[in-house]
Every structure is written in structure tokens, then in C-alpha cells.
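Following up on my earlier thread - several people asked me to post the actual chain instead of describing it. Fair enough. Here it is, all 290 residues.
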Amino acid sequence: MPLDPRLTPARPDLADLALRGRVEAARYVAGEPRRVVAPSAPLRRAPSAESGIDTEAVLGDAVTLYEARDGFAWVQLVHDGYVGYLAADSLGPADPAPTHRVAALRTFLYPAPDLKRPARAHLGLGSALVVTGEAGDYLEVPGGYVFAGHCRPVDAVEPDFAGTAERLVGTPYLWGGRTTLGLDCSGLVQLCLEAAGLTCPRDADQQERALGDALPDDASSDDLADLRRGDLVFWRGHVGMMLDASRLIHANGHHMAVAVEPLRTAVARIREKSYGPMTSVRRITPSTGS
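Reply from S.P.:
Thanks for posting it. Predicted structure:
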């Protein structure tokens, strides 16, 4: 099987030392652990602010750093393996490890434990925090204070991933987006499954191969009965999640937002105007989640 370039830290001039003998490169290096210290950081396919966004990293995400040059860092994200370029100043030391995560859709980082002070930054769902102390209703973290009621211990999970998706209705569509300020279809699925404590690949084709169990005859049949909350519906290049037997939630370019609609409506429109017919429906259970 050829190596997936999205997940392979290899360029003609530089590659991960672990890939020696599998890929050709002028130089091999052992990556160094780092962690994202910015509220969010676009991961680009080239070291340029004009390059398209493939995905996003958020505060606390662990990365492996292979090179930092001219303001960009070439990295691999630890949680899903994606490779690309982040702004070099968005990275900091790998330690200490996060202790808490933001559980609210959005919260603010304040310079003091006082809601009347001007916020320093916006933090989104899933951002990972290193809590160093408490001050009344606030947690002290590097750079300021966050309202404690918006946070949970880092290992806390939200098992109803469809419920997490419902909280995100109306979030604008953003190609490559995986924060509560903007999401694409697979970013929505990844964010919700990771909040449930499940490992999830980044892109729709990767998710279709890796997640859950395929329901029989779903790719070619028009019979959409027997679907359940949390089932993932796939097209070539698109994915959505069932809220019940008939309603689909998905981040999509038609609505330019995370939206809920009847699955049959989505199937007809997508077949005619964009990604063609459904390719599969996959069901995630505790034993089949990745």
C-alpha cells in the first residue's frame, strides 16, 4: 500500500527518521515533541499564509516537530497523524501535559479572575488546558484565567456524540475547519467523536475506512430504514451524522453551516448536485469505535 501523503512526514529534502528505508529523502531527522500554545492554528499544506487550510490544531494539541524555518513549523499532529505547516510561534514545550479541557462551546481567557476584565483570547470546545491553580470560580492557566464551569478534567467524555453535534448547529462552514468558529463535514465528526473519547481520523475517506461497522446494503439501497442516532452517512468526499432514524446533521457548503435536514432531502440533493450517491453507512458502538 502506498503511504498516504497526508499522514507521512516525508519531503524530498527531509523525512522522519523512522521512515528511513521506506521513503527517499536527502536528510532524516527524529521529530521533537511540542504542544500548540495558540488558541487555534491552521495547518497548511505549504509554508505560506496563502496556502489552503487542510485542518486546524487547537490549544494543547500535541505535535511532532521536524523543522522550523522562516516562521513556519513542519509538524505531524499526534491525535490524527496529519502532516503540514503551522505558524512557528503557535508552538511551545510539550510539557507539562494538559489537565483539563474546555467543555463549553466557547469560553474566554481573562488576565485576572474577573469577568469585567478584557478577554485575552477565545478558546473553543476541546481546547486543552494546564491548570496551575484556582481563584474563586476561575482556573488559573498559563496566560490567564478561565471560568471553571466551562471546563472538565482532560479525561472526561461526552458519550452522546450526536448531542455534541446538535450543540454546533449554526456553526459556519469552513473548509479545513475543526473549531467552533468554523467546521467542515469531517471536522464536525472528528470534534464530536473526540469529545466522546474516541480516536477519529481527520478526512471523510479516512473516517469511512476506519470507523465503526458498515451496515449491509446501504451503499446501493434506497431503503434508509433502521438508521440510529450516531450512525455516520458517507458520500465520496462528504460525511454526516444521524440524529435519529430520519434526520441528518452535517457541516455543508449548501447551507454554509452545520445544519439539520431530512436524510432523504440531503441524499437527493447531494446525488444530483455534488458528491453523487451514498457510499456507506457506518455504526459506531463501544466495541467498534476507533
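The mean pLDDT is 95. That should answer part of your original question.
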